[in-house]
Amino acid sequence: MYPNFRTKEILGISKKNFFALFFFLFMINLGYDIFASFKWGGVDLRTRIVYARYLDFDYPLYSHKWSPGESERIIDPSECFIRVPNRNSGTPFLAVLLYPFSTLDYSFLRIFWTALNYMMLILFFVLIWRRFFKDKLDSPLLIGLPILFLFFLFTHSWHFLIERGQVYLIFMLIPFLCFMGFTSKTPWKLAVGSLILGMGIALRPIFILFWIPFLLKLEYKPFLWSIVGLATAILMTTQVPNGLNSWAEFNQSISEWSVRDIYEMELTEDMTPEFPKVIEGMPIEKMNSIKLFDVENISIQENVYTLFKIKIYPNQLKIALTVIMLLYLIIMWIKRKGLSLSALFLNVTTMVMMTELFIPAKRFNYNAVQWFFPIAIMYVLLKNKAPAYLYLISAGLLLNCNMISWLPFHLPIGELLIMGTCFYYSLKVDDQIYTEKALV
Q1: Residue 283 in 3-state DSSP?
Q2: Contact assessment for residue 77 and residue 198, using Cβ atoms and an 8 Å cutoff
Q3: Which helix (DSSP H) or strand (DSSP E) does residue 292 occupy?
Q4: Torsion over CA: 128, 156, 169, 422 (sign)
Q5: Helix (H) or strand (E) holding 282
Q6: pLDDT tens digits, residue range 119-167?
Q7: What confidence tens digit (pLDDT) does each residue in 390-437 have?
Q8: Does residue 86 contact residue 64 with C-beta atoms inside 8 Å?
Q9: What are phi and psi of 42, to 5 degrees?
Q10: DSSP 163-209
Q11: How far is CA 22 from CA 32, 144, 265, 344, in A?
């Protein structure tokens, strides 16, 4: 039996025309992203891969910079040679995770990474369909999945992610896969989801906030499994240069980068070397090329400075964030008994994204692809009972599209609209469409 998308009933067009339009719009996006992958070098992907290759050369992950005589495989043309730390902002475990990809030729990897992002996004929607619609093939919500898929592809965040070769779709999938495991009836899926969360914390320490649902719901088994995942990831980093000390180096590097936007970073003499004209078969002009977007940095720090010419210092951001998080936790504690596990995940995802806005460093808009998870889950939870939330989410996604670039601050406005909607709705969710306890 095949899904009944009910296109005639809901949209007034035949199923054939609907999917012809879907395929046409999909191919426009795919064609543009393939073009972008050939035209621009994926500067962030190059940076990530170079530092993963440091594992082969036993170079420090956060301080070493290429010099003539070293392998061309560790050249990062976008490296800044007047700052003390290098461009590596990922954890030691991210270098371990990306190491298998680092063995590939970069020209091939640049295209493969785009294909991999598409495969991950398709996997995301396939898993949603299998979990929530496999036995509801006549659900009117089915028609929303391909529409939501196209919405995501048309966002500024998605095209920015592809052009720079970023890894944030992986960061989106981690809480999603955890959520799928935690709300499953199958014990092994719960264990796998918990292990993924633990390893996710080693990739993005801020994901430790996802322990909150366990603690509020007194779910100790997934909590312990996630600790096992975290411990496993940390043990794997003993193989990187300087072993476990690399975590201290990571913390120091991030601390130095946190003052980048207020011009207080320690500078050194410019020792930029002369790079080869061709690196791994790719001209250096292409490898170091980027598409300049109208708006890139959407942090609180940047927007306040742009609007009011007021510099917000790291300690001020930390105080503001601490107050907001405490209020958030108090609200969650008060409402914990009435909140489902799905609602708690929406809450924590909103907390994570809010925290990122207050980080005292540049926050590029490709980070916003992490909203794909809570938006998709909200869509499933709504069950046609609250169309107003759908309108607000749709407006937020629309503001994230390049076609709205004429509107000042359309990206931060769109993200704040999505954030506020997710926060407000997550405190009102009472749809028990999941099994709250995976272990019986």
Answers
A1: strand
A2: no
A3: none
A4: negative
A5: strand 282-283
A6: 999 999 999 988 887 777 677 778 888 888 998 999 999 999 999 999 9
A7: 788 888 888 888 777 778 888 888 888 988 888 887 776 554 433 333
A8: yes
A9: 65, 65
A10: HHT--HHHHHHHHHHHHHHHT-S-HHHHHHHHHHHHHHHHH-GGGGG
A11: 16, 12, 48, 33
